[in-house]
């Protein structure tokens, strides 16, 4: 009875907390990190708003078009930034996924969080595959590696055999949580 609403609120809390941490990361002295953190904060807060359970708040029809415009602008910005860094490709995919979800949710009969019995569209399936791969790859990058192994593989994440949970690892953890949240949201389409 309370399962879907409770999981929806957990998703909202996860995305909002991730967005808040990304806002804190915007204080970095490195321009590239500030830019990435800003895009990730927008994604975190946008996902939090879109994940509010429909039983609690159903946005008006025009709100979905507003989401599509905001995330369309974020996608355009990521496309422009892609010329300087390949990391922005993920931001581009994430922002266009948010546009897609906003359009699907806005086109559903009750403006709810499901698209009905139409099955799994090919684009949704492709996005599910992308974000599943992204989550798995990001999760593997967070696994601590013993110091001797790190030197041979070029991997990071451990110093002296213990996890180094500094800024790069927390940023990866936030990206991992947003990837998991994106998977959860795509599954509801």
Compile the SSE list and pairings.
Blueprint lengths: L2 H23 L5 H20 L10 H21 L6 H20 L14 H21 L4 H7 L4 E2 L2 E2 L3 H21 L2
Antiparallel strand pairs: 1-2
Describe this entry's structure for a reader:
This protein has 189 residues and is an all-alpha fold. The chain has one domain (3-187). It has seven helices and two strands. The protein has helices at residues 3-25, 31-50, 61-81, 88-107, 122-142, 147-153, 167-187, and strands at residues 158-159, 162-163. Strand 1 and strand 2 form a beta hairpin. The longest helix has 23 residues, at 3-25. The chain is globular. Residues 111-117 and 152-166 have low confidence and may be disordered.
What is the residue-averaged pLDDT? 82
Number of helices: 7
Q: Please indicate the percent range of residues in DSSP E strands (runs of 2 or more).
A: under 5%
- Tertiary shape: globular
How far the N terminus sits from the C terminus, by CA atoms, comes to: 20 Å
- Major beta-sheet overview: 2 strands, antiparallel
Order of strands, widest sheet: 1-2
Radius of gyration computed on alpha carbons: 18 Å
Order of helices and strands: HHHHHHEEH
Q: Give the domain tally.
A: 1
Question: What is the count of β-strands?
Answer: 2
